[in-house]
Write a structure and sequence with these properties.
Elements (H helix, E strand, L loop, with lengths): L2 H30 L2 H35 L6 H40 L2 H8 L2 H9 L6 H4 L10 H27 L4 H6 L1 H29 L4 H39 L1
């Protein structure tokens, strides 16, 4: 594995890990009753994710263009499959870290309530006490939460399926658009810009259908109209559907890339 591919895999892991850990901040918001503060602190991680995303695209594009000039240099199909597999691994790791991270983020939200300083909060997180607190917060998913997969009663299946579809589209969008450049090298710039169409569909599903449901359920849990146990049950299913979506993206890469290349020719 060369350094460029290692960087791409690392950036991919960060992007999908942070996306999965968003659920931990929802739980922290419920436990503290401070949803706005929880999401504000989570935006710090979102900034890291978006910075990683801004570097991932150029690295991928450079790899494709290098391969077009020297076809024997890289095995792009294997590389892209490995990238998607990394997204699946990051989602799985993020799901397993939810118990640890929600405890740590709950402490962070409570600490911010006292100090009201993000800079001070960040500095404290890297002190021996902050690192010790992270270690003390370590926990594995409880068996009680995992068995929720065997009892999907009450879980909104429509929302879960939409989350699966949105996750698959979001995972494959940019990758397929850049990979399409190998199919039609002369239209690789046009193909790369079409990623916004695929990601746009995923974004619409996320912000119009999925996120409003989670926001409403979060408010219901805080007000007592829904139990925290049911909220955790939904979160488990959301993580599983997100993981399934990243796995499905493996099978969507080639068809999506060919469709994008065909669309680029038709424009």
């Amino acid at each position: 594995m060369d350094l460029q591919l290692a960087l791409i895999l690392g950036l991919t892991f960060v992007i999908h890990l942070i996306g999965t850990l968003a659920y931990a901040f929802r739980i922290a918001g419920i436990r503290t009753g401070r949803i706005a503060v929880a999401f504000s602190l989570f935006n710090i991680l979102v900034l890291v994710s978006r910075t990683s995303n801004s570097f991932q695209g150029p690295f991928l594009a450079k790899r494709v263009e290098t391969t077009i000039d020297g076809p024997s240099l890289y095995n792009l199909q294997f590389d892209f499959m490995l990238i998607i597999a990394t997204a699946s691994a990051a989602t799985l790791v993020g799901g397993l870290l939810i118990p640890t991270f929600q405890r740590y983020s709950t402490t962070a939200v409570s600490s911010f309530r006292r100090n009201r300083s993000v800079l001070r909060l960040l500095l404290r997180s890297v002190t021996p006490r902050g690192i010790s607190l992270l270690v003390e917060s370590a926990a594995v998913p409880s068996y009680q939460n995992l068995i929720q997969l065997r009892r999907p009663s009450g879980v909104p299946i429509g929302v879960i399926l939409m989350n699966f579809a949105a996750s698959a589209l979001w995972t494959v969008g940019v990758l397929a658009a850049i990979y399409a450049g190998t199919i039609s090298p002369e239209l690789r710039v046009t193909s790369s810009t079409l990623s916004s169409v695929i990601n746009g569909v995923a974004t619409i599903m996320l912000f119009i259908m999925i996120d409003p449901y989670l926001a409403g359920l979060t408010d219901d849990t805080i007000s007592g109209d829904a139990t925290e146990g049911f909220f955790r049950k939904v979160v488990v299913w959301m993580i599983v559907s997100r993981l399934a979506g990243t796995i499905a993206a493996q099978f969507m890469l080639e068809p999506a890339a060919k469709l994008i290349a065909l669309t680029a020719r038709a424009l």
